[in-house]
C-alpha cells in the first residue's frame, strides 16, 4: 500500500512538472513575408491541398498587434482558435473578439479580416478548401477599423 501511494505521488509530481511547461505540438513555422498583413505573423503549412486532400491546413501565429489584410476565400475557411485573443470582422459588421476554444466559420466569398489584439498574440488552425481558388487579398485594415485611436 505504501508503495502504491509513493508511486502515485511521484507520478503526480512528474505530471505537475510536465504540465507547467509550454508544450509545442507543431513547429512555429516560417515568418510570413509582410505582404498581406501588418505585424509579425508565423505560418506552418501542416497539410498541402492536392488531388486527395482538397483542403489545406495551416497553423498561424500572430504577435500582439498583427493582423491580416481584408480578404476572402472563394470556398470559405474554418478557424479553430487554439491560443490567445484576437479579432474577426466581416465587411459591414461589428468586430468580434475571439478566444482560445472558439471556432470561426468564414463563409465563401465574404470579405473579412482577423488577427491578434494589441496586447495578446493569437494562434489558430485554419482549414481552407482549395477547389475554388486561392485567397483573394484586398486592402490593409485601417487603424480605425482595427481600433487604434490617434
From TrEMBL:
<feature type="domain" description="Cupin type-2">
    <location>
        <begin position="60"/>
        <end position="116"/>
    </location>
</feature>
<dbReference type="Pfam" id="PF07883">
    <property type="entry name" value="Cupin_2"/>
</dbReference>
<feature type="signal peptide">
    <location>
        <begin position="1"/>
        <end position="20"/>
    </location>
</feature>
<dbReference type="InterPro" id="IPR047263">
    <property type="entry name" value="HNL-like_cupin"/>
</dbReference>
<keyword id="KW-0732">Signal</keyword>
<dbReference type="InterPro" id="IPR011051">
    <property type="entry name" value="RmlC_Cupin_sf"/>
</dbReference>
<dbReference type="InterPro" id="IPR014710">
    <property type="entry name" value="RmlC-like_jellyroll"/>
</dbReference>
<dbReference type="InterPro" id="IPR013096">
    <property type="entry name" value="Cupin_2"/>
</dbReference>
<protein>
    <submittedName>
        <fullName>Cupin domain-containing protein</fullName>
    </submittedName>
</protein>
Amino acid at each position: 500500500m505504501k508503495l502504491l501511494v509513493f508511486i502515485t505521488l511521484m507520478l503526480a509530481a512528474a505530471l505537475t512538472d510536465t504540465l507547467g511547461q509550454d508544450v509545442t505540438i507543431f513547429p512555429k513555422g516560417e515568418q510570413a513575408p509582410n505582404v498581406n498583413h501588418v505585424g509579425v505573423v508565423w505560418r506552418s503549412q501542416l497539410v498541402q491541398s492536392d488531388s486527395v486532400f482538397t483542403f489545406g491546413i495551416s497553423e498561424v501565429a500572430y504577435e500582439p498587434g498583427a493582423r491580416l489584410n481584408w480578404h476572402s476565400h472563394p470556398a470559405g475557411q474554418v478557424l479553430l482558435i487554439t491560443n490567445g485573443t484576437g479579432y474577426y470582422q466581416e465587411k459591414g459588421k461589428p468586430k468580434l473578439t475571439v478566444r482560445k476554444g472558439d471556432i470561426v466559420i468564414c463563409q465563401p466569398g465574404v470579405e473579412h479580416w482577423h488577427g491578434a489584439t494589441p496586447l495578446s498574440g493569437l494562434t489558430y488552425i485554419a482549414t481552407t478548401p482549395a477547389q475554388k481558388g486561392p485567397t483573394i487579398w484586398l486592402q490593409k485594415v485601417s487603424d480605425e477599423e482595427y481600433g487604434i485611436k490617434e
